[in-house]
guanylate kinase
Amino acid sequence: MGKVGLSLKRSLSSSMLFRRIFSSLNLRDLPPSPLISSREFSGRLWIPAGGRLSDRSRWLKFQRNICLSSIRMSSAFQMGDTRRPPVTADKADLLREVEAALGSSFSLEPLSPTPNPLIIVISGPSGVGKDAVIKQVRHGIHFVVTATSREKRPGEVDGKDYYFVTKEQFLSMIERNELLEYALVYGEYKGIPKQQIHDFMSKGFDIVLRVDIQGAATLRSILGDSAIFIFLLAENEEALVKRLIDRKTETIDRLLVRIATAREEIKHLKEFDYVVVNEEGKLESSVKMVESIIDAEKARVQQRNAVI
Ligand SMILES: Nc1ncnc2c1ncn2[C@@H]1O[C@H](COP(=O)(O)OP(=O)(O)OP(=O)(O)O)[C@@H](O)[C@H]1O
């Protein structure tokens, strides 16, 4: 027998079983329900096809209990309240009827608090794909533009990829306490301007900070558990080095420094909350994984509360 025939047979036997149990309820002996007609009842009941018979029997028993308790509830309502709404009344009428019976109207206030804006720190070895992942993460997120004293790479845009400043300008930003965190990386300064974080958090945006491992450690000491720390990794060392070579921005000497640094950095993985493996050719999955982490964090009962 084909798949279609088998599932048809299953659903037929399910509905026969259901009819046998439903008919044992003696609905006609019960007072009519003001809220739910027996036709609506049968429309709402659902019996899973397939599965072991014992599972399905348990499911049917569960459905029957729901039927019985609904009938009991509606009977109680009927006994205590002589203003029976007609069975044909629409949803809005029934809602008003129930509100009148309760003596108060239903609140439209959200039942759970609005999630706090998040600060998401993304770190990982050089060339692992931090920028590539962050650029594709969905809207509602502000990727903080870092200030740097390093030279612009081909294709980079000032104010979009980085704020390119001179070393002197960077040092005055440090003096004015305008940076949340800064570091000297491969002889160049990189730092996070505080004002941008304030501005976007106050508008309800989640904040993404992209820092190296040293920066992540500093941010952990400043923000503690109020921020989320994600470590981005390649699937193996070879994939990481190939990615750096493909970028065509590194001399052999700089490549050697970055590889040695990456080996040290990977040892800090345990200081992070999450790890995302950015596999070769699977950038999209890594982006989805980061988005899933953000979704899960938004659903936390105990929200993180980042304050800068
Ligand atoms: N999953 C992937 N598969 C293949 N190539 C990737 C993947 N992710 C990123 N890349 C490529 O790897 C290179 C390095 O990525 P990217 O510049 O985003 O790394 P990074 O971690 O931001 O580096 P750095 O810290 O040195 O700035 C880029 O050419 C990018 O397009």
Observations:
- The radius of gyration is 30 Å.
- The mean pLDDT is 80.
- The chain has two domains: 3-102, 119-298.
